[in-house]
Amino acid sequence: MRRASEHPVASLSFASSNSRPLAYGADCPVSLQHFRADVLRFTEQIQGDGDVLICCDGRYGFSVALLAAWLSTRAVILPPNRLESSLAHIRSHLPIAIECDRRWEETLKISPVDSGHGEWSIDLPLQNTAVRLFTSGSTGTPCIIPKSLGNLLHEAEALRQGFVWPEAPVVATVPPHHLYGLTFSLLLPWVLGVPWTDQTPFYPQDVINLVTDTGAGTLISIPLQYKALLREQPDFSHLTCVSAAAVLDSETARHWQQQQTRAILEIYGSTETGVVAHRCQDSDPAWRRFDAVSLSANTGLLQVTSPFVSEKWKGSFQTADRVKQLTEDRFQLLGRADSVVKIGGKRVCLAAIEQKLTTCRGVIDAAVLAVSADGPLRDKMIWAALVVSDEAALTTERLRKQLQGVLDGIEIPKRVIFVDKLPRTSSGKLPRKCLINLFK
């Protein structure tokens, strides 16, 4: 970082060669010449006032739009999803100069003929607003979170320095439209100088194929994907595997360690705070803060102060996560304050119930709600939505038998529905409204 015009700037460098492409498109590698030409061409197309709304599918198109917007001193708007109702709401409430949708993305044709290589460095003012993100909506209505270039690039640099990363491509099963995917599937490979991929595979075999085809060294994913990959038993022992967006349950972590002979690196953070802490469960189940992060828990809730926190909160954010602080550097997560409810006068943790449900035989994914009950002894009851394997033949009665002795009577779900999948976002979060709709 250095100073230019009295404002600090950061330099980003991009490069490709005959032996290492800049990125991997859906059909062929991407050269620096092609990427630079696309970025500069789109920079000239951004006219008028407003920000750049990105709602295209691929990571390559996303990268072109993102960098062009930053070079034009514009922020990008990253919608919480790509439903037309959500996009219409954004268009009516935020000024938009140009929209990068699927039709726009189709104009970016990657050709193997474009093989011009070399290096390209750009300077970006750190104080500029870089993105306007939306929270997941898992606990209510999504909120807009502005992040500066300083927030994002300081975070990427902290990740680069904090771990030993392979000098090989990064594959991600999470899209860059949320902070986890943006930071780890784009900004991290940018500061590492390694290729990234246009595709965001979802099915386990597609993940395996992309890792193999690109010679990837790092996999960015979520707990549910790692659980699915375990059933395929791939040889990922050479990969650095990162997990975030939800807590990785201890059983999946243990099975992965046994199968792949190395632990998954877990990251704890949020849209508001950026990365906060990390852990590998094989060595320490507690979370350890990143060096640039300061923590306190005077009220029992985690307070985060760091250069990754949006200026909206002046660099310090009060989370809704209950913690037990072990040392200045380490803490245990006890669940969200808003996941604890009282049923019949007893405190019940919904997150803990979900975790217990996922350990039941045949259960792949689970989500629970506390709903009002009109009974003499209980004012609330638990409802559960489950995804189960085809061979499990799980019924509500069999589930309740498994839960006896594991959960208290008031914690055992009174209503259970079985669904093909839970309506999680692409980053693994489950908006509360979508969960409620399953029971209608």
Automatic annotation (TrEMBL):
Its EC number is 6.2.1.3. This is Long-chain-fatty-acid--CoA ligase. Transmembrane segments: none annotated. The keyword Glycoprotein does not apply. GO terms for molecular function: long-chain fatty acid-CoA ligase activity. It is an enzyme of class 6 (ligase). Pathway: Lipid metabolism; fatty acid beta-oxidation. It holds the Pfam family AMP-binding_C. It is found in: Membrane. Residues 120-288 form the AMP-dependent synthetase/ligase domain. One of its GO terms (cellular component) is membrane. The keyword Ligase applies. Residues 353-429 form the AMP-binding enzyme C-terminal domain. It is a peripheral membrane protein. Keywords: Ligase.
